[in-house]
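dumping this here before i forget
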Amino acid sequence: MTDAGREAELTARLAVLEERLAELERREHDAQGRPGAGDLASMESLIMGFVPADTRGHLRAARKEQLLAARSVIDHLIARVDRKPPERRRRESIPLEES
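structure:
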């Protein structure tokens, strides 16, 4: 097979694969109501199927703690923004006596 023939074959195969991918994305979109929504949920459900129930509880609690930590940081930053800046004190010059 010549290089041109090989390139034409590869281009045709790529077009078929791209069409299959587009079809899968359309199915995903139709099933979930929005593009890519099921990717994370299906991955999580797959992983959780292998994880024991008590471990799932720990993972859920850890996720909650991470969110609470993020909330704490955000609350701290909001408090910093709301704080009134301190009044600037003027410098005072003190004359020195010459000896």
